[in-house]
Amino acid sequence: MRNLKSAAIALAALALSVAPFAAAKAQDFPSRNVTMIVPFAAGGPTDTVARLIAESMSRSLGQQVVVENVGGAGGTRGAGQVAKAAPDGYTILLHHIGQATSATLYRKLPYNVLTDFEEVGLVTDVPMTMIGKSTLEPKDAAALIAYVKEKKDGVIYGNAGVGSASHLCGMLFMSAIGTPMTTVPYQGTGPAMNDLVGGQIDLMCDQTTNTTGQIKAGKVKAYGVTTPNRLKSLPDIPTFKEGALPGFEIAVWHGLYAPKGTPKVTIDKLNAALLTALQDPKVIARFADLGTEPVALERATPEVHEKFLAAEVAKWKPVIEQAGVFAD
């Protein structure tokens, strides 16, 4: 008993001695490079957002924020890596709406979306566009809907993989028109877009950060945007409300995360750098080129992000369950 008591006292003393050291380390953050994990392949829309934010945050933090692409499993591989990383702020995650949908979509998710991360702040809401190969017959959204209903699984819809934004958009579109298409999942947005431009697939719905350039270059045919109002960057493309499909609206938000247990002082420093990035004229201008803009600063706080994520998990749960689309 005496030995157990002595051991307990020793452990308590050790904890007390380590606490000031940990606090000091957090105060010194960052003293080396920070790794920003993007859970998708390089060159995709989320990667584009991450690199713009990382460049600005590097200047604010005084250390390089290095983007590392850890793709696979619909974004869950990269997210899982961050969930298991040391909670010191040196490994962070830039993820999109898939952070919320994965909670229902994956039966064996190796982490808890709501309890294994510290939210740093929301970054941007990216509209989406439904695009087709340049030779696709329908001329507008109403004609496209009629065409899909007629051809059904004769229409080939490509996406960036299970759990990707393009997968979610396609799932909602098929649900909204009550008609299935043949779905081809790719290993990332880049390969899917290449096949769409090349005419191997018929349709794709993806973020404006990835589609705006292709639309303006005339390499694909745009059928509609998934926002209530037309976009400043693509003013000639109608909304789906105009195109006979009211209520078909989806925006792909992006958020920044750190592992659970990351000290508040570290989260605050990361958030301050994020807020600076969202006001950076270069970031704002580049986002505008891509058809999006930073979120309002009041939405970019850890507290708002935490509540928003929980609401998004609850919002998408019945949609995914009704569709019956799950992944292991």
TrEMBL record:
The keyword Signal applies. It comes from the Bacteria. Pfam families: TctC (PF03401). Keywords: Signal. Residues 1-22 form the signal peptide. InterPro entries: BUG (IPR005064), Bug_dom1 (IPR042100). The keyword ATP-binding does not apply. Belongs to the UPF0065 (bug) family. This is Tripartite tricarboxylate transporter substrate binding protein BugD. It comes from Ancylobacter radicis.
